[in-house]
Amino acid sequence: SCVVKEPRLVVRKFLARPQHEGLGATVRRSIGRFELRYFDPFLVLDEFSVTAPAGFPDHPHRGFETVTYMLQGAVTHEDFEGHKGTIKAGDLQWMTAGRGIVHSEMPAEQGTQKGLQLWINLSSKQKMIEPRYQEMSSKDIAEASKDGIKVRVIAGEALGAKSPVYTRTPTMYLDFTLKPGAHLQQPIPKSWNSFVYVLEGEGTFGGKKSSPLVSAHHLLLLGSGGDGLEAWNKSGSKPLRFILVGGEPLGEPLVQFGPFVMNTQEEIDQTVEDFENCVNGFEKAKHWRSEGCN
Ligand SMILES: Nc1ccc(F)c(C(=O)c2c[nH]c3ncc(Cl)cc23)c1F
Ligand SMILES: [Fe+3]
């Protein structure tokens, strides 16, 4: 069946190289690096790797959402409202920072913890909403399998499986594993910006089966137009694993200062002041410190 009539083409390819982030942590940053500062509505995609005592100690966020999806090990997050939990391999945390969150994200086990963190911008109208978490354990994440393709639906819908996650900025976030020989056709809403990030194995993406092979840690920007993604695993033995992420562009001005993402410089100045004075959503930052690795 021809699900995708006009596949989107790969218009740019980046290799995400390791860089230092947080306190002694390493991230492979694809979106958010200087050559790809913002791919509306996406601000950052980090493939992180962290081993205790390194981590991401107390830090704030305002104006966007962070989506943490663990691939190996576990991370404990705790915030200034006393919200605390552990995100284990396969688990998901969709954190809407809105008007303000201060939290820490630290290794929960010995050894190396690996995962993905995606930062999704919020529309100007939603930047100052109350913070909110949507957290799902691995077993509750919608999955479907068909013709050598397995998909875990973080957000959106694929192969008949649908995620319960409410996405303020309309977003799809799909974790695909293709067995050798499998061929995927996944619809993508026409107006959305979308990209692929390869996690394991090698695959062929875009319109032609003869396109060059793409390996792990590569980000592929998909062109606009077209009605979906085509992908093939032509290797004889290795599975191909990648995420397909897409979202409705917000089309608004962007001013970012680290973990503060607003629309004007004045709003950023105000945010810095709010954080320093512990007001307008940062009240609890006044006396809070994470318990850290006890
Ligand atoms: N501002 C700022 C500055 C420095 C940081 F490290 C962070 C930060 O926490 C993270 C950056 N990528 C990440 N991937 C995974 C996890 Cl669990 C956390 C982060 C942050 F937010
Ligand atoms: Fe954070």
List the helices and strands and how they pair.
Layout (H helix, E strand, L loop, with lengths): L9 E6 L2 E4 L3 E5 L12 E10 L4 E6 L2 E9 L1 E6 L4 E5 L3 E5 L4 E7 L4 E10 L10 E5 L5 E5 L2 E7 L1 E2 L2 E2 L8 E8 L4 E5 L5 E8 L1 E4 L8 E2 L2 E5 L5 E5 L7 E8 L7 E3 L2 E3 L2 H13 L17
The protein binds the ligand Nc1ccc(F)c(C(=O)c2c[nH]c3ncc(Cl)cc23)c1F and fe (iii) ion (FE).
The site of ligand FJE has 13 residues, from strand 4 and strand 5.
Task: Explain what this protein looks like in three dimensions.
With about 290 residues, the chain is mainly beta. The chain is about 5% helix and about 50% strand. Strands 1-22-19-24-17-14-13 form a 7-stranded antiparallel sheet, with no helix packed on it. Strand 13 and strand 14 form a beta hairpin. It is globular. The protein starts with 9 loop residues before the first strand and ends in a 17-residue tail after the last helix. The relative contact order is 0.20. The mean pLDDT is about 95. Ligand FJE binds next to strand 4 and strand 5.
